[in-house]
Amino acid sequence: MGMKSDLKLIKNGKRLDGRKPDELRPITIKAGVLDNANGSAYLEWGGNKVIAGVYGPRECLPRHRSSPYKAYLTYRYNMAPFSVDDRKRPGPDRRSTEISKISAEALERVIEVEKFPNTMINVFVEVLQADAGTRCAALTAAAVAAADAGLPMRDLIVSCAAGKIDDTVVLDLGKKEDNFGQADVPIAILPHSEEIVLLQMDGDLTKEEFKEAIDMSVKAAKQIYELQKKALTERFKKGGGKE
Ligand code: ADP
Fold first, then answer.
1. Any atom of ligand 1 within 6 Å of the Cβ of 134
2. Number of folded domains that form the chain
3. Does residue 155 contact residue 190 with C-beta atoms inside 8 Å?
């Protein structure tokens, strides 16, 4: 964000990849892709490729983390070394720790953790290929994986970003737009109640632009939610469940 450049990000109303300002990159979601997790999902979003696996509720370890009131929910966002153009140093770093923390907090709002006291639920998301917007792709996939695991949920979660490039508010920033743009605002919302459970912002926006960005993401979330539902319906049409 904010790197100075003469690169024009919008020409004749079109973005570098030909999208209109309020257009999402193509998204595909498949639920139930892993045999050894209780729930899973694979998601492609533009150049992003992520896979999510969910375990639990299961015995809570370490035991001191267990609560008599709710399941202990963990979320691990991890970028594969080959997910970016320069090999990424394997293992957690400040960025992945932060993304994991806020994503866990968002998921805790929809998974009915209070139904499973003294247990833990573990969500793992591996970013196989990164092209900006991976935290949104990861959380959107994790919500599908949680539903695929059969966990009781109040709602699904959809995550999406909007931002500003060339003084224009746009949806779903691509890599160059993220690098050379003026703002990026990832959010996560519950599609039914439209409650916002995650909000971050990089760069600067006027109050009006901020509102426009949120409205754009909320509208896009409805589209993404349809894809999540479709992935889950297809999964359960095929007989669903684990043998
Ligand atoms: P998000 O992926 O959620 O947009 P950031 O804004 O932090 O998160 O990152 C934007 C993009 O920058 C990522 O999607 C990825 O393509 C790239 N990126 C992030 N971390 C690294 C890294 N350690 N090495 C190379 N590229 C990275």
1. yes
2. 1
3. yes
Verify whether ligand 1 is closer than 6 Å to residue 135 (CB atom).
yes
Q: Is residue 179 part of a domain?
A: yes
Question: Is the distance from the beta carbon of residue 40 to the nearest atom of ligand 1 less than 6 Å?
Answer: no
Helices (H), the chain: 94-108, 134-148, 175-180, 207-237
Residue with tokens 């994986």: 145
Report d(CA 49, CA 132) in Å as an integer: 11
| Residue 16 counted as domain residue | no
**pTM of the entire structure?**
0.96
- Give a yes or no: residue 162 inside a domain: yes
Report the separation in Å between the CA atom of 77 and the middle of ligand 1, taken as the mean of its atom positions. 12
Domain that holds residue 130: 21-233
| Ligand 1 centroid from CA 10, angstroms | 22
Give the atom of ligand 1 at the shortest distance from the alpha carbon of 89: 23
pLDDT digits 0-9 by tens, 20-62: 999 999 999 999 999 999 999 999 999 999 999 999 999 999 9
Q: Is position 3 within any domain? A: no
Say yes or no: CB of residue 49 within 6 Å of ligand 1.
no
